[in-house]
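STRUCTURE:
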């Protein structure tokens, strides 16, 4: 069982036991001492995409936890993880970069 699966199990178990917010986060860290905010958010997203988890209250508790900790500062433990694939950068507005055409429809010469 991977680290992420262990965190996932602790997260779902805690939510099923009625824990939420800080108490759920603390429970997960107690069960998985090496769990970081980043790993807990990943496990939360895994839980939200699990088709077997259907109880609305549990999904809401896990969603709220993921949102709350999504922007937590990076801890030193997070640095040990392999770098994630970077998200593509947004390109500048292309409309402002298009060359202007003259009346004949030709692009201007530099």
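SEQUENCE:
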């Amino acid at each position: 069982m991977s680290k992420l699966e262990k965190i996932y199990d602790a997260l779902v178990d805690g939510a099923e036991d009625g824990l939420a917010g800080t108490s759920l986060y603390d429970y997960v860290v107690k069960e998985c001492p090496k769990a970081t905010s980043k790993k807990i958010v990943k496990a939360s997203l895994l839980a939200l995409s699990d088709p077997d988890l259907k109880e609305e209250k549990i999904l809401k508790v896990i969603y709220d936890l993921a949102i709350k900790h999504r922007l937590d500062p990076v801890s030193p433990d997070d640095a040990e993880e392999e770098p994630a694939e970077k998200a593509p950068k947004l390109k500048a507005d292309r409309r402002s970069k298009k060359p202007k055409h003259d009346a004949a429809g030709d692009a201007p010469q530099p």
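REMARK: The mean pLDDT is 78.
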